[in-house]
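Protein entry
_____________
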Amino acid sequence: MAFFKKQKRRKTNRSGCGFVMIQGLLMAALLLLNSILVRAFIIANQPVEDIRINQAIQFIIPLLMIFAQLWIYDFLTAKTTEDN
């Protein structure tokens, strides 16, 4: 019967709606910041001449940056909670 042990839930004051709102605002802010950084890099360096490739870079790179930033954040918070 050890398989069916009921785990105790921690009492928190956090709400699911508040978490989703904060995450949404964080992702919007990161997307804006990353887009500005990528756009500045494109304007300054002109890595390629084709406008279609520049537009693809401006669309894809900020999304990949958000993925990397949230992965790093998750990795660091998991390490800090694991140590405590």
Summary: The chain has two helices and no strands. The chain has one domain: 20-83.
